Every structure is written in C-alpha cells, then in structure tokens.
From TrEMBL:
<feature type="transmembrane region" description="Helical">
    <location>
        <begin position="219"/>
        <end position="240"/>
    </location>
</feature>
<feature type="transmembrane region" description="Helical">
    <location>
        <begin position="143"/>
        <end position="167"/>
    </location>
</feature>
<protein>
    <submittedName>
        <fullName>Tricarballylate utilization 4Fe-4S protein TcuB</fullName>
    </submittedName>
</protein>
<feature type="transmembrane region" description="Helical">
    <location>
        <begin position="103"/>
        <end position="123"/>
    </location>
</feature>
<feature type="transmembrane region" description="Helical">
    <location>
        <begin position="293"/>
        <end position="311"/>
    </location>
</feature>
<feature type="transmembrane region" description="Helical">
    <location>
        <begin position="252"/>
        <end position="272"/>
    </location>
</feature>
<keyword id="KW-0812">Transmembrane</keyword>
<feature type="transmembrane region" description="Helical">
    <location>
        <begin position="317"/>
        <end position="337"/>
    </location>
</feature>
<dbReference type="InterPro" id="IPR012830">
    <property type="entry name" value="Citrate_utilization_prot_B"/>
</dbReference>
<keyword id="KW-1133">Transmembrane helix</keyword>
<dbReference type="InterPro" id="IPR036197">
    <property type="entry name" value="NarG-like_sf"/>
</dbReference>
<keyword id="KW-0472">Membrane</keyword>
Amino acid sequence: MQITKTIEEARRQVEICNACRYCESFCSVFPAINRERHFSDGDITQLANLCHNCRGCYYACQYTEPHEFKVNIPKAMAEVRQESWQDYAVPAMAAKTFHKSGVLMALAVIAALAFILLLFQNAAPAAGEAQAAGFYGVLPHNAMIAVFIPAFFLPIISIAISLRRYWKSIGGERLRLAHFTNALGSVAKLKDLSGGQGEGCNFEDEDRFSNARRWSHQAIMYGFLLCFASTSVATIMHYFFNMPAPYPLFSLPKLLGITGGVILSLGTLSMASLKLRADKNLGDARVWGGEMGFVLLLFVVSTTGLALYMLGSTGAMPALLAIHLASVLAFFLLTPFSKMIHGFYRLASLLRDAQIKAKL
C-alpha cells in the first residue's frame, strides 16, 4: 500500500492519541496504539482495520474541531481502511468502482445476471412441464452447479491474494491456535461494538450510547451464517444421502434457511436505517454508496430467498428464481470488492493483534 496523505494524517492523529491516552479502554484500537511509540504504514493500516467506527472516541475527545489538533479518529481510520481494501483488491479498479457507486453496481449486476438466467429458462424446452417439476425443472441442478462453482471459487482466489498482500504489509507472522482462539472470540461477540463500558457505541445519535449497531451486525453475521449452513446441509443431503430438493418445511435446510433469511433481512434493514441517521463526517463519505450497496445486496439476497419459498408453487416462481440466483451470484462475485471484505481484514487484524500481545 502506497504512503498517502490519508496514512500521514491518520499517523498524526494516532500520535496525539498516544500522548493523551484518555480513550485507552474504549476498544482494541487504543490499547494497540498505546503499546507503540512509532507507527509504520503497516501499523496504521492494521489499526484502521481493527476499528469498528463506533465513534465513542470522537465524542469523548477534547481535541476534536474546533480545537487546532482537529482529531477525528473515526474518519481517519475509515479512510485508511477503505484505501487498504481498494489497494489490495484484485482487481483494484473493481473495488474502487463499487466503493464509489455500490448501489448502482449491485443493481446492474443483479439485473444483468437475472436477464441471462431468464433467457436460459425461456430457451429450455417444455417450459410448462419444467415449471411443474420445481426449481430444477426451470434450471437443472447441473446447470446451477456449473454456474455457481466459478462464482464461488474465483472470488475466494481474489480474496486470498488480497489477504496475503495485506498480511504481509502489516507484518503478519506464522499463526498459532491461540491466536485464532483470541481473535475468533472477539469476532463472535463483536466485543468492540459494546464500547469501553459495555454500554454500546455512539454511531447513530452522537453521544448517546446504543447497542443497536452491535445487534444489527450480529443479525447480519449470524443470519448469513445460517443461510450458508442451509445451503451446505442441502448440498450434503443431495450428494451424500441422495435426498434432492425440494425439502419440507421442518427439514434442516428449510429451518436454517428461513430463520437465517428472516434474521438477515431484519439486520440489513436495521443497518440501513442506522447508516441513514449517522453522521457521514465521522466516516469516509466518499464511499457511502458502496456501504449502502453492500447492505442492499444482502437484503435482496435474503428477501428474494424468502419470497421464493413463499411463492415457489406459483407462476411467479421462474422469475423469482432468476432474481434470487442472480442476487446470490452478484453477492459472491462482488464480495472481494464490497464491504464484505472488511470481515476478512478485521479478522486478520485481530490475529495480528493477538500475535503482538502474545509477545508482551
């Protein structure tokens, strides 16, 4: 990652924080700051990806504007964090485009993929009979697999290259089990969104503490994991137990999928509401469209999945199937360039933080 004015400004502010130390107990960022005396570019980048943008430090700080120091750690960290996602992405131009126009890009990709899938359906013989046979009658199982395998593994390769670059830039070393235990525990609880005193963060309403953002994050994370588990279980049932879809309501794939879809839809709606109310000057305002695009993408995936379940036996099924599969494909294809990558980078930053603490 190149040395930029963004990193230089973040370093200036971090050095002020290191001298003050008032916010030492707020989250993982400030103890990490207070451990150091000098900050390399990699240090600043790692600190930025540790930050959850909860904004508690901003409202506690005595050096924010109009003070001449003009400290705004949430904004400085957000800008460095965003640059790291863009600069290490493969290809970087796709990430820059999504971060600038995420909503438009997400909708365009979904529309294009849905159109292609609808064309494929219309070209298939005996469309009426195919519809009566269910999802696989409209789009054969082997065709789905042929489409989704590249859409799943190509983004994984892109993310792996991106993470390797990032890990090298922040001085990452060989990992041990203890590092994963420490980092994953923090991820599971979203610990840093609870604030220094466990009262929550200040994201949506200035200096009022709230756990709404933490709950929204947890709903999105666990809703997504339940949906992913539903697909995984269905795959195992299909290939290992010769139990192809469709599945009844009280089957494991349906229970996991419906529960996850509802939680994910509610979580994304809540997150969108919070972002609309939040102060854009405490984040990277340049990429607000990309953040909303990512939330929209997850919302479309979950709600079209639920709609497909409810209306799967009606004439709307072929169109809904095309839209839902297109949104899922778009989600996977855009993952290396959307805010979804933050989860991977934050985990890497927590692992690096665990490595550093283990040496103390």
